[in-house]
Amino acid sequence: MKNLFTLANIILIVIAGLMASCVTEKASEPMTLKDAYTNYFLIGVAINQRQIDDQDQRGDTIIKSQFNSISPENALKWDSVHPQSDRYDFTEADRYIEFGEKNHMTIVGHTLVWHAQTSRWVFQDQDGKPVTRDVLLARMRDHIHTVVGRYKGRIKIWDVVNEALNQNGTLRQSPWEKIIGPDYIEKAFQYAHEADPDAILRYNDYSLEDEPKRSAAVALMKKLLAEGVPVTAIGLQEHVQLKWPTVEREDATIAAFAELGLKVMITEMDVNVLGGLRTAEISEMAHQGGSNIYTNGLPPAVQQELAQRYADLFGVFLRHHDAVSLVTLWGVTDGDSWLNMRGRVNYPLLFDRAGNPKPAFTAVVQSSK
Ligand code: GLA
């Protein structure tokens, strides 16, 4: 009897000990990005092919633990899913969707109508001559209906038109604009809405913090909304720098779009610590993406500046959390970033090349409190 009592006591002590250790472990675990912002907005990340294909265990662990939304870096761009006029290829895109669904994430579609990463055949006839407006509209409609239709109800947010504006606020003379005319924008939104009436449809662009591009985008959104075009969100790409844009400008930009009743989403955030041209044009960035001055690591003072920069910008997003529903980082670790183009060593994200959280990560989590 006495032995039995002792045994029961021992078991109780062991269980209590185990429970206590679980509690301490939980309390000492660093908070994740998605948990830190759970009451405010979703935290997304752009994922690349290796991550979609389960070939980057370290990256996948970070994606699954830290983020609750994903965007495809390339998997849904026109030339990935529709490389030839009579051929769609959904291999990678299907895997991207499965990844998101398996991990219960909000899945973003990026991007339907853009001037880049869109195969040349789209705009040409068999002789290499520009197609007519009607032919291009039919191609656009077929593409949007096929792609959006395939993932109807599964992709909740679509970038319908990407980067239609120039820095001076005029409409970009893209092949879309030149062949169809300015109404290609409303047509794209109409087709996307027909294909999935429940999807959130975004206009997505960079440097919208700058005048006159900002006023032009506000005017364009106002016009589309007044005409009943089904645009429901604005995507601020947020390819920013340490000193640009100012916090005040970011604040005013979000406010200007929120006032129109649009959802505001930060869609491609990274902070280029090397400076250079303020653009997301990959061709221009290649030449002017800043000088490669930190090849041996980021100096601690700049690391701190970067952390403060992230804290300041997340502070702005947080102030506007009624309008801001999603903040997406454009890549998982520094090593994954497009900003390393042409041998540059850049440090734009929240996890370093070894997958460790940077001071900027801690600053972002702290900012939520
Ligand atoms: C734009 C596009 C993204 C990505 C970046 C960097 O912002 O929307 O898909 O390609 O440029 O190249």
Describe the protein in words.
There is one protein chain. The chain is 43% helix and 14% strand. It is built from 14 helices and 9 strands. The chain has one domain (39-367): Alpha-Beta Barrel (TIM Barrel), CATH 3.20.20.80. The longest helix is centred in the N-terminal third of the chain and has 27 residues, at 2-28. An 8-stranded parallel beta barrel has the order 1-2-3-4-5-6-8-9, surrounded by 5 helices. With 369 residues, it is an alpha/beta fold. It has helices at 2-28, 33-36, 49-52, 57-66, 78-81, 91-102, 133-150, 175-180, 184-195, 213-226, 247-258, 282-288, 300-319, 359-367, and strands at 42-47, 69-72, 106-113, 157-162, 200-205, 233-236, 239-241, 263-272, 324-329. Helix 7 (133-150) packs parallel to helix 9 (184-195), helix 11 (247-258) packs parallel to helix 13 (300-319) and helix 13 runs parallel beside helix 14.
Please outline what is shown here.
This protein is of the alpha/beta class and 369 residues long. It has helices at 2-28, 33-36, 49-52, 57-66, 78-81, 91-102, 133-150, 175-180, 184-195, 213-226, 247-258, 282-288, 300-319, 359-367, and strands spanning 42-47, 69-72, 106-113, 157-162, 200-205, 233-236, 239-241, 263-272, 324-329. It has an 8-stranded parallel beta barrel with strand order 1-2-3-4-5-6-8-9, surrounded by 5 helices.
